[in-house]
Amino acid sequence: MTQSHFFAHLSRLKLISRWPLMRNVRTENVSEHSLQVAFVAHALAVIKNRKFGGQLNAERIALMAMYHDTSEVLTGDMPTPIKYFNAQIAHEYKNIERIAQQKLIAMLPQELQQDYRGLIDEEHYLPEEKSVVKQADTLCAYLKCLEEISAGNNEFTMALARLEKTLALRHSDEMEYFMTVFVPSFSLSLDEISQDSPL
User: Fold this and answer.
1) Which of 113, 103, 168 minimizes the C-alpha distance to 142?
2) Closest CA to 130 of 71, 49, 45
3) What is the pTM of this model?
4) H-helix or E-strand containing 68?
5) Segment holding 157, helix H or strand E
6) In sequence order, which residues have a C-beta less than 8 Å from that of residue 38 and are 6 or more positions away?
7) By C-alpha distance, which of 39, 40, 18 is closest to 29?
8) Which domain holds residue 170?
9) 139 lies in some domain
């Protein structure tokens, strides 16, 4: 049986810092970001199913969100201002991401590749699944901005404004529900979010 370096690579996602050009009160890595995106994507899918007539597989979407940035273990996290500087750079970076995704899948034993291809390779996402993962990814970046600004770091003010525009473009009923019910707590202190919690 041949050895695989797939999970050894994934374990290094914790070494890749996000927001590399920004001064951070607390550094965020790709591994913890991916977990938060999985939490939020799962919630968005559940909300859509329960409240807005959706028929999404929330567990599959949570897994897709867990794996959505795994290619960054090979490419690193490209800062947004550079990644989207112009259409040509954005297009080329998408090609690089796709090559990295294929390389990761190829690290797996042949008999497991098909099981992971649908989680790692965005080409295998259904449009509605992709939309939920993108919404969750954007929401988590927005939440990071709220946390940094709440901690007194104004470095994230313009990023917050840019993400508000992106969220408006990706608007959905389930996102509006999440933002109304869950997002306000992210600007509160531990004491404030603890005082109303049932014991």
Assistant:
1) 168
2) 45
3) 0.90
4) none
5) helix 157-169
6) 62, 63, 65, 66, 136
7) 18
8) 6-182
9) yes
- Identify whether 33 is part of a domain: yes
Cα separation of 81 and 54, whole Å?
34
The tens digit of pLDDT for each residue in 57-106 reads 999 999 999 999 999 999 877 666 666 667 777 777 788 889 999 999 99
19: left (phi over 0), alpha (psi -120 to 50) or beta: left
29 forms beta bridges with 17
Smallest CA-to-CA distance from 46 within 134, 143, 167, 177 is with: 177
Whether the Cβ atoms of residue 13 and residue 29 lie closer than 8 Å to each other:
yes
Q: CA 149, CA 29: separation in Å to the nearest integer?
A: 18
Distances from the Cα of 174 to the Cαs of 19, 37, 45, 81, in angstroms? 27, 15, 8, 28
Distances (CA, A) of 183 to 65, 74, 189: 19, 32, 13
pLDDT at position 80: 66
Answer yes or no: is 195 within a domain: no
- With contact defined as beta carbons under 8 Å apart, do 16 and 30 qualify? yes
Distance CA 57, CA 119 (A): 13
Q: How many folded domains does the chain comprise? A: 1
CA angle (66 as vertex; 21, 145 as ends), nearest 5: 35
